[in-house]
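To whoever picks this up:

The nightly regression suite flagged hydroxyacylglutathione hydrolase as changed. Nothing in the input moved, so I suspect the structure step. Input below, exactly as stored in the fixture:
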Amino acid sequence: MKIYHVPSLQDNYSYLIVDESTKEGAVVDPVEPEKVIKAANSHGVNLKLVLTTHHHGDHARGNEKIKQLVPGIRVYGGSMDNVKGCTDKVENGGKVSLGADINILSLHTPCHTKGHISYYVTGKEEEQPAVFTGDTLFIAGCGKFFKGTAEQMYQSLCVTLGSLPKPTRVYCGHEYAVKNLQFAMTIEPDNLKIQKKLTWAQNQNHAGQPTTPSTIEEEMETNPFMRVGLPEIQEKVGCKSPVEALRELRKLKDKWMG
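Regenerated output under the current build:
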């Protein structure tokens, strides 16, 4: 399994997932279809699937165009999310295969939108799995609670995604790592892993390189929104439960000027 970044718009990422034995490919959130098709052609990939994380225009508005440019391509999206161009609605636990070796599991991760889907992708046994988290889980952050509650985001982040194997690679929808890690430093100023990752992310940005993928393990170590079960995080934000702490953290982040 190969995964390629396709930078789009100002700070978005689309991703090209390739089954190496068949050269069949899937693309996550092809907001600028021409860029995705160019990337696929450069790697000799036959595009078969679109995996849409949620209905927002900066993730789904390329779906109709890619259907015109790649006749027969299947467009997957959450059944509760009214995704443009969707041909196949998916529920939590829905499974799709790609090529000979890739399996894709749909995970309902609501809060940013009601029907947000993250896609957990596995290849050959020796390969690290990957999860495409759209705007639910970012490096050191999470999406805004546009259509949901802190309870839903806790379930999505800390239970659904947090229970994935620790080596799982995390590919999110936007390049927000530096700002998110700077905010994380205000919550845990003595966390050396956050400090180290912030320096690394700044260097990546300066070099014009992406900060994805992270891993589930790294997020559990550096992402305050996934660390709300820790008493020290709860104490920092004046709360006594993980859900309350998550709610308060999101409020703080929404007000934070950086």
